Amino acid sequence: MMNTPPRSGVIREINGPIVTILLPGLRNGEQVEIGRLGLVGEVIALDGEEAIVQAYESTEGLRPEEPVAGLGWPLSVELGPGLLGGIFDGIQRPLEKIFLQAGDHIPRGLNLPSLDRERSWHFVPDPKLQIGAELTTGMRLGTVQETNTIEHRILVPPNRFGSLLELAPEGEYQLEQPIGRVRTPDGRTRKLKLFHRWPVRIPRPYRSRDHGSAPLITGQRILDTFFPLMKGSKGAVPGPFGAGKTMVQQQIARWSNADIVIYVGCGERGNELVDVLESFPKLQDPYTGRDLMERTLLVANTSNMPVVAREASIYVGLTLAEYYRDQGYDVLMLADSTSRWAEALREVSGRLGQMPVEEGYPAYLASRLAAVYERAGRVETGGCGKGSVTLVGAVSPPGGDFSEPVTAHTKEIIQTFWALSKDLADARHYPAVDWVGSFSEHVHTAAEWWHREVDASWEKWRGEALALLARDAELSRIVNLVGSEALSSAQRWELEGAALIKEGLLQQSALDPVDTFASPEKQFLLLNLMLTIYHKGAELIELGVPVQELMELPLLTRARRAKQVYNSQQTDKLRELLVEILGEFEQVRLEYAKFEEHAR
Amino acid sequence: MSAKEYRTVASARGGLLLVKQVPRVAFGDRVMIRDHRGRQRNGQVIRSSRSEALIQVFEGTDDLDLETTWVRFMDQPLEISLSPELLGRVFNGIGEPRDNRPPIVSNVRRNVSGSAINPAARTYPREFIQTGISTIDGLNALVRGQKLPIFSGSGLPHNRITAQIVRQARLMDEESGFSVVFAALGVSHSDARFFEEDFASSGVLGNVVMFINLADDPPVERLALPRVALTAAEYLAFDLDRHVLVVMTDMTNYAEALREVSTAKGDVPSRKGYPGYLYSDLAEIYERSGRIRDRHGSITLMPVVTMPSDDITHPIPDLTGYITEGQIVLSRELHNQGVYPPIHILPSLSRLMKDGIGKDDTREDHPRVASQLYALYARAQEARNLASIIGADELSERDRRYLEFADAFDLQFVTQGEDEDRSIIETLNLAWELLSHFPNDALSRVSETDIAKYHHSGKK
Predict the structure, then answer these.
(1) ∠ CA B374-B380-B381 to the nearest 5 degrees?
(2) What is the ipTM of this complex?
């Protein structure tokens, strides 16, 4: 980090969020305090004695010649206990505290510390640590119970390694109270505290990269069963407005089996964040049974908040995610929406008069986007075993056109693509994940897990269901031209089979208390149920049973409703239903055989 | 306020003035301009440096010269005066009276740019508003504090629909209606008169504040108008505890004005020549609606967006849809068939509906009925398409039933009179009449209890 005394200069020009200042000796990325109000900004370009600064707050009322000061450090976040359950703005200011102090609107120039300095935490030193031990980056110093579910591991900060001189005994400590001292290799003695700072644009160090081994279970059938995402990998949810991007992201935030969820509302609606803030504390984590908010952290830059802080919010979220990863947790970060982040880049580059390439976006869009997504990954941490950051970005393509630059570049980087379709959403088929346009590169890796944990035929059934859906798309084209009468009985049954998969498996109501989450086992049983019905029916049609008769069987409606009737614990009931349905088919077969005999 | 006037205008074009050798003027400050005939214009600083300031002139730069144009920097941001006297008044885009009555005198003055509501200060909107229109209440319900635009096209009856909503909107359990802030951006004289007469004849005029910029008024003023109108709305809602309905028509004209000025400024264009910050700019406006913790009042926003060439992917409706909490889409096809209100339900959506309806708000079957109607109508569109190719006679019995349902839906459920104020219970009962065209087992989205209670086969 840079440690130079503050220097001061003056404002030259104000052009929206871009301020030109006269102050030599700054570094790119350095934080600057602008004007009498003390607005926060960041140096983005240097030109002779002048520096170009982007301001994180509205610049209205600023005048040329007002003072500016360089602060000597880059945009950094505070990392320590007290983050979870909170809501922060795009540069990690605590919004709840700002509300208590300043009222309904966010005032300018208000700089409150991100973490509460008054609060005491019960620190338990790591019993294995001896005085004189060699500390390395990321080693565990001790723990603090941050929330009921999450044990916060206090780590050796990346710039504080050396030999341990002193470690505080178990007890209550505030953030500013030292919990130990270390002699760093340069011979200096430095204090250790419960928190440290880290610059957001620099990825946090780790020992080595590791491959993902388990899928992230989201409880959403179309995602887990059809397009799995591994822990530590990266995915995207593109979709036009109204296709349900936010709903999909919120469902993942609610029901996924990550240890920590970081939800970054980047340039989106204020009410959506309020929805999370108000609803999560009332919901239970299906894995631990605890209040969901205990593992959740929100970073909010709503669409009406300053655009430059929007660009920063993604990095703030990523740094927080990496910090919990370094404690050995599986962290999920949701970024809604990366398009707004890209637009913030575009806005700033436009104001700087940089040459636009595609649709006004700067030439560095693709490389920045790739660098953001590359911060996801599963790693061997410095001292807490393996941890991961899974990154899921929403993309909001203008006009729903997936060939636009942000979607196109994102598609090249990510491994799982959940494409949302306007047509499905219009028919209120939710989640509107389009099985034709979506993909996952991890089906084989995920299959190992499914085969081990759930059922060895998972990959085969999954493939079969997708093939049936593909045939359905083909046949539907014919039906739309000439009507269903033109199809053979077997083809009409194929359409019915695909309809069963769509309605009984893919459609999942986020509002229905039973249907909103499905365990992997329930997902598999439903898949099995729908395909078994399809196979049995196809056999009967082969024997000559009229398709009309099959389509009127009441068991079809029961199968369609099964997802809402049986919850994830009632898998035995689903198995019973399968047996019962097999029996009904057998009944039909026998009746038909009898009827045939009569006819002869 | 500085008394000094500057006569150092270096350029005047496209609604922008560049003034040289000026003192350190603050970004966003208000400016008074006097032209060669002594008439006053208003402006705002949009770029400021040590030697010069760029000013956007709300009345435009027509008929200005460089020699005899005087500029005075007012040393204050663009503000308006606020008092309960606002109601019943008519103003222009920067808050000056348009009704030949004196300006508002008050010591409450607010900066029109506002500042962002802290997300932690918001509370989630969940109180159902009954508009009396079935397609909205039943399928795309509006809640208090929501921003729900109407996506229309030129020649479609969006004015009549908005006027009907203004007349009929109310909460289920409250008698008192809404205070209305009406913001007209570049509308024609006849449209403005239509609204004025409609408000007058329905007796709500005393509860309406109007901010009007007509089609032949200067376009730059349209950039300030929504902000001025929302500043008034915030005052009514959060100072005077009223429930405010803000109607803005037509946001397309606002975006056009923004493009005009940004082009003159030399901003890098993104899609269709609109500036890259169109999204943020629209969001600054739309996000000022909502509910705030521990405040009684609320701002519900209904902007009207006419889609150029009926294209919903055009940047203006597209970006609006990404910011607002849903959209009500009007259809030219329905309009041409004589259906009023021609609301096309498939692309319409209300994101906040889920928490405003159901057992404690409207009726327990409401969410499932809405979902079922959507599913059937979407399926029925396929049958319609098929019928247009192979003819209705060739359809299977199943498809014919869908076709009949769609026709009945358009005629009975969508269609209603301009003065027809349907209660939500009437709307839901009407929905069940239509659902009863189908046997029980074709209705997989409603529950068995719903069917037993409301399906006509179950009743009779």
Answers:
(1) 95
(2) 0.89
